[in-house]
Amino acid sequence: MKLTGSQAVMESLLKENVKVIFGYPGGAIMPVYDALYDYMDRIIHVLVRHEQGAAHAAEGYGRITGEPGVCLATSGPGATNLVTGIADAMMDSVPIVCITGQVASHLVGSDAFQEADVMGITAPITKWNYQITDANEIPEVFSKAFHIAKTGRPGPVLIDITKDAQFATFDFSYPKEVKMESYQPTTHPHPKQIELAAELLNKAERPYILAGHGVIIAKAEKDLIRLAEKGGIPVAQTLHGVSIFPTAHPLHVGFLGMHGNYGPNILSNKADVVLAVGMRFDDRVTGRLKDYLPDAKIIHIDIDPAELNKNVQVEIPIVADAKNAIQALNKEIKKRSHSAWIKEFQKCYQLEEKKVIQNECDPKKGKIKMGEAIYKLNELTKGEAIIVADVGQHQMMAARYAKFVKPNSFITSGGMGTMGFALPAAMGAKYALLHPPNGQVSDGKASLDREVICITGDGGVQMNIQELATLAQENLPVKIVILNNDFLGMVRQWQELFFKKRYSMTKIKNPDFVTVAKGFYLQAEKVEKREELMGALKRMLKSKGPYLLDIKVEKEQNVFPMIATGASVDEVRLE
Amino acid sequence: MKQIYTITAFAENRPGVLYRIADLFLRRKVNIESLTVSEIEHTGQSRFTILVHAEPLLVEKLVKQLYRIIEITKVIDSLDQSLIIKEIALIKITAKNLERRREIEQLVHLANGKIAAVNQSYLVVEKTGTEEEIDSLHELLKPFGIKEFVRSGRIVVFK
């Protein structure tokens, strides 16, 4: 069938089961927007207020569905505004496809109006990018782009389309399958490696599983729970691994890393066999490398061979999809229990509870605390909500104290630590629940009604606050909780601990967020008193549309436990 | 300890692949000592020969990270002992007087090079060989006054 390049873009999106796109129009992408006008019954376009919002929203969509989130922007500034979101998706292995307009091909390279070297700019932060200058390339490039974005180690892909290619007409037919000689991720583990890994685990006295984002991407949560239960192995989760295990599971010992739980960090160095799966030994997890896991033999499963032996030298590297590898291990693993070892984690937890958690989550006096707010929220959501956290103290509090009963319920910017991520990402997550790619609604109405709660800070929320307008326009029921301490809290904490309390540029004068929200036509409320907190949270969850709750919390509160930069995991501080 | 490595990468012949390869070396702060690229006949594939001076562990990481580039099909890192290595150099020397020309011709002949071009005011010496052979001919010719000295960077085949 004869189509214009722009119509071909729409048809290609339909072929890839795309239901929602996040975007912002502009000169060089206008033909595509014109084509969209005839597809609005089949594709929902969400008009963000800044392209960065589109990229993060696509990430939120991609994280929840496992299918690429799609964003659309114009050339030049439209494309460069996507950059932070693309880099974020690259670091956190999130499937997104970004489509950008480009000036006409005869103008490319001539410093034309709104021309930017998007290919050059995004090459280091995309898994793949391609510039289409001929409409005939559209079907093949789109099918490749979606395939690359969601398979192997997922990541961002960018397609740049010149304006003349958007206008040109050609005979459209979409490839049935993607054939790429050069790109064939290894998904099945080597049987010998599995055998060796099982042997190590079966003999271990203090085995320990570190579970990361890869487990969620591979949808291997149940397989991992089975493995842990069979082998009697305690499991700690990385920041992106949070919610793999239900919080209450007896083998789930907590959250790893700089502000993770005490036991999972300090006991790392007592483990004799470590199974790391779908995680990448980030410096926030390992602390000082030369003193990390001194006594452990390490098995590392990752789909990206470049992650194996990158930061930590391992005994048994396994290149595979986490689900395949864990299922293979499950067949080899013996039934064991390690109750004395698990008891050590429990003891550590009791100590952490006494020293940190009690005071954080159930303080009797003073201002509201961040952990307390999350704790109260848990009581109301029963762990059913999807929590989307921004970056900073509130993020660590959310990772530490939010409770989960379902996997893939915690979304945040981990690798990149992008402030301003949460509000647009929460938007994308909510769209993922309401309008998933074809036939993917997993649990029907329950999924439609699932709350998406954005936990953010007073600093972070202002970094993409324009998206409140998008929420209002779409009447999208995302709940926004600001844990507001009138400080850039995490930086302030570091200044207090490592820079002699010299609070350089961390004290901020905030707007009245309730007035701001109301200006955007959102419902909003501010709460300052402990006795009013529960009521305010209830009103937020009862409300029908988008809602902002500004919770004023203690100003100079620190997140503990903490492993200082450059310290070893066994130097984790409780106070 | 740092060593000389030749990294041979095979990739689909498309614009942008070299950009991504170069960027990876930049991120890892590894200088590319020499680089040659050519298309392998009728395959649509390019062959990159990259010479670096780096630690073995870093080279191992670089190789794995190169595989992340979608178009790359194969990467091999090698030490010199497992390679047949050749490079080509062109050396332009001013030589107006006949006596000097003779001397140069003799030297070049001894060093297994050849005269690639000649006119009244200069001659161009062409030498194919290992980097050391080229270096040594370069040294020998220096006293004659070298106007230009260009080398191609190594190409290799595996032993």
Automatic annotation (TrEMBL), chain B:
Catalyzes the conversion of 2 pyruvate molecules into acetolactate in the first common step of the biosynthetic pathway of the branched-amino acids such as leucine, isoleucine, and valine. This is Acetolactate synthase small subunit. The lineage of its organism: Bacteria, Candidatus Roizmaniibacteriota. It comes from the Bacteria. Its EC number is 2.2.1.6. GO terms for cellular component: cytosol. InterPro entries: Acetalactate_synth_ssu, Acetolactate_synth/TF_NikR_C, Acetolactate_synth_ssu_C, ACT-like_dom_sf, ACT_dom, AHAS_ACT, AHAS_small-like_ACT. Pathway: Amino-acid biosynthesis; L-isoleucine biosynthesis; L-isoleucine from 2-oxobutanoate: step 1/4; Amino-acid biosynthesis; L-valine biosynthesis; L-valine from pyruvate: step 1/4. Pfam families: ACT_AHAS_ss, ALS_ss_C. Residues 6-81 form the ACT domain. Dimer of large and small chains.
